[in-house]
Input
Amino acid sequence: MNIGQLSIEFLLLALRIAVVFLLYLFLYQVLRVITRELRMSGAEATPASEYGYLTVINPGQTGLEPGKRFPLNQVNTIGRAMTNDIPLNDNFLSAEHALLEWDGSTWIIEDLGSTNGTWLNGREVVQPTPLTYGDIIQLGHVELKLSR
Output
């Protein structure tokens, strides 16, 4: 072997090592971005709401994670239809199941004629009913907690 062949083989080896190094560096950067995005998609990424949140206690059949928070507006519709402010994919919910409204001093929940009813702290809601932070709302198999 002459010196020319050795230098070409050394150069090819160095290029192979550099390509492998760059490939691992690229994969490392991709994993960093994915990890950061997953962290941000948790509860920290929930937009702030001056009215509070509905926090999932028992997700029922929805596939939601317990602890998922839905930011509240002054008026909120809850139901199975995707047009609701808080859509919950549970077969035991009506398309438009309940209405949660802030009247300026307290929260009021109203069942919108659902088939399976709306429950507040274990009692059926038969007329518009006031509620406070910490109360548990059950719609179908889903349980939500009113929180700040």
